[in-house]
Amino acid sequence: MHFALPPRKTSRPPPYAARNNSSLPIPPALKNLLRRDKLRLVVVGILGFLTVIWLLGKSGKDTAPKSTTPIPKIPKVAIGSGPPVVIVTTIDPKADPAWVQKIKKNREDYAKKHGYLTFFPNNDQYPTGKSPLSWAKVPAIRHAMTEYPGSTFFWYLESTALIMNPSLDLQSHILNPSKLEKSMIVNEPVVPPDSVIKTFGNLKGDRIDFVVTQDKEGLTPTSIIVRNGEWAKYFLDAWFDPIYRSYNFQKAESHALEHIIQWHGTMLAKLALVPQDLLNSYASGPANPKFGQYKEGDLVANFAGCAKGKDKESCPEQMKPFFDILDQAQ
Amino acid sequence: MCAYVPGNTAHAQRTSIPRIPPHNSSNSFTVASSNSFSASAGQRRRRSSAARQPPNLSLNNFPPPHSGTGTTSGISGGTGEALPTIPGTPAFEMSRSSSPRPGGWSSPGLNTPYDTGGGGSPQNVTWASAQARSAEVKGYPAFTPRNQGFLGKHFRRISSSLPFSYGDKEKLGRGRYQGNNKVLQWLNRIGWNLWRLRRIIAPVLLIITFYVLFYVTPLHRYYRRSSWFGGGNKFVVILAANQGGGVMEWKGPREWAIERDTVKNKKKYTQKWGYDLEIVDMSTKKRYAHEWRESWEKVDTIRNAMRKYPHAEWFWWLDTNTFIMEPTYSLQQHIFNKLNDVTYRDINFFNPLNISHPLTDQYLDPESRSPVGDGKPDSINMLVPQDCSGFNLGSFFVRRSVWTDRLLDVWWDPVGYEQKHMEWEHKEQDALEYMYQNQPWIRPHVAFLHQRKINSFPPGACGEKGDDPQIHYKENDRDFLVNMAGCEWGRDCWVEMYSYRRLSDKLNRKPFEKIKDWIVDTVKARWEKKNKNGDKKS
């Protein structure tokens, strides 16, 4: 279409266009380079340049002597592929064999019911040196982890304790993250009554690697749950360090535990302190005044200190009525 | 534009004559006196002065100004022969009658096409004259005049003195220079070939330009720092300054000089490779003294650095008395790209402490019992060199990881310190050795570096002679770093620092400096020899 006349020019001429729109003055030679038809050239140039730099950076040899230890084949077992819980109890080989059989049977019955495993090492098979044999529980847990690398939780239960309520499943009873978050005691002094170090208040249930209880005097390593993993190795190895074993803590490994928990934040951050009757009710001994005493229906009845009694037979003696109750239930 | 003609135009020389090809017969312009000629030739250039000339001076002999503008091709391309073909030169003007210009025939005295100067009659106003006048009135020109620079003013004269000869014209040249000058021919050919190959040469030139730009500007630092290319932001150098200073000891000028040198050395190195440098004050503090934990601040310091540089992966601890001898080595190239090759995890390879290495306790997992951990470089979280007496923490690496977090946490423990503080002379270093031996979880994640990779010793540390190939600095191998360990006890730190700094400078001279030094040295040697001979003779 052609118009007869060109359109009328505006009577208000636009103001002069700015000489340079951008504040950055680009020289015309560079501007010319940035035109679209030249862009390919520029891109190729940059890429070629980067390649040259990259190639130059690759060179370099090394002449240092090399260690020639072959890389061992370490079988990788995924945590969680095995039975969920392993119950560990260290056995004193000098104890009454009949009683030991009963203790073992108590754990085995419970494990069979829930598909768990049991592990009963002797307490003198570990290099505890001159320190008390109660230290054996630490390498025993580590040993169980070596034996059953696919399991997730390792429940150490002292031989002075009995599982009294086999119907309670450990996982739904304690270890379920939401359950754990609800039941763990936060902001509580690690050592009663007034330690400055208190349990953390904002821990997530699925991040907990260590479940422990507290009696009247302090942390009770007679019934603890440790989650398998790198943290467990760190925790157990640090706990078992000869420097603590040789220090003459009054209560050996349980004071050492209190010490490392209070001084090292990476351990406290993985710890969940649960009410004593969830995991470690005392049938006798210095129970936690709030919820430590054994009552019917609790998972565990612990005869704390019975082994240290004057007569060696005190443990079987004290446990007798409880064994009877268990036998009746079956 | 103009040409100097060697031979035949002796009468027209001196004042150079514009727009007249030299081969012209000269009779055509003898009419015009040479000075009127040049005056009006300058007319367009210096308007005001030209305007003073009487307008009727042989105007018809000359082309109207615009016709002369085409003749500028001559010198720039070296193809001056093309001149005669250009229309509007006086020779043709004289010999042929050309058709009238747009302004009509020029008739002197009747019309004055251009400004007649000063107060001209109003009816003769042309655009050019008006412009000229307005320029006069304003006092400064309305536009920036061209040819104001040195070249613009003098180009004519300079170019006319160049040795171009348009004397013999060769028709076959097709506009190219065909003279006898070999060098020029040669240059010409190169120029043409370059132009012909421009599609290939341009990218190459571009790459070279980028390369130069890259290293001249700080661009290479950004490149080396970026996590995509160089990865320099993954490394932090922690330099302990002021070690043991503070209340216990005043710093003298030597200590200041040492600190200045060591800081400068690390600053330069980290800047070059895009690493971060964290200089920490390690002066004795009451807080640590109270808790018996002098020199365990190292742990707190590393933790702080980890918090401060959240993107960094490896942290390199360096004592004050260290000097990076080879700043051209990057950490990536020197160590971390070939971590498996430069480290050893089986301590039996070099074991001054006689640590019984693979742990044999049956209760431990296979990884803890293995001599090399899982053997993968990813599982290395700490790199420590060993000197003649065990671990050396004057220069070591830790990697940010959960493992490191735990190690830093258990490193200092009051129970351990209470029992061992008399025994542990080197405090945190001994504590680490102790933990390595007694806590199995540590072993699979510690790898050892050859001492001379990052921590060569000078003679005096670990043996007076300094000839242990595992430990002592060797100039010929260009070791990376010298740690003047223990120089505060009986040796002179400043002298060592100074001499190693000089040595490093000497080893890392630029090629140019090497040549210069070589020349100076040979001249000096000759001079001395001569002097010696002279002495002998006398």
Automatic annotation (TrEMBL), chain A:
| Ranges where the record places region Disordered | 1-22
Give the CC-aspect GO terms.
mannan polymerase complex
Q: Which Pfam families match?
A: Glyco_transf_34
- What GO molecular functions are on record for this protein? alpha-1,6-mannosyltransferase activity
List, alphabetically, the InterPro entries matched: Glyco_trans_34, Nucleotide-diphossugar_trans
**Is Transmembrane set as a keyword in this record?**
yes
Q: Does the keyword Kinase apply?
A: no
Gene Ontology terms describing biological process: protein N-linked glycosylation
Q: Which residues cross the membrane?
A: 39-57
Keywords (alphabetical) are: Glycosyltransferase, Membrane, Transferase, Transmembrane, Transmembrane helix
What PANTHER family does this protein map onto? ALPHA-1,6-MANNOSYLTRANSFERASE MNN11-RELATED (PTHR31306:SF10)
**In which family does this protein belong, per the annotation?**
Belongs to the glycosyltransferase 34 family.
Know the name of this protein?
Glycosyltransferase family 34 protein
From TrEMBL, chain B:
For this protein, the parts annotated as crossing the membrane are 200-217
GO BP annotations, alphabetical order: protein N-linked glycosylation
Q: Which portions of the chain have biased composition (kind: Low complexity)?
A: 24-42, 50-74, 95-109
Domain of life, per lineage: Eukaryota
Keyword field: Glycosyltransferase, Membrane, Transferase, Transmembrane, Transmembrane helix
Any one cellular-component term (Gene Ontology) = Golgi membrane
- Give the GO molecular function terms: glycosyltransferase activity
- Where in the sequence is the signal peptide annotated? none
Query: Where is region (Disordered) located?
Result: 1-121
PANTHER family annotated for this entry?
ALPHA-1,6-MANNOSYLTRANSFERASE MNN10-RELATED (PTHR31306:SF5), ALPHA-1,6-MANNOSYLTRANSFERASE MNN11-RELATED (PTHR31306)
User: What family does this chain come from, according to its entry?
Assistant: Belongs to the glycosyltransferase 34 family.
Recorded protein name is Glycosyltransferase family 34 protein
This chain's source organism reads Periconia digitata
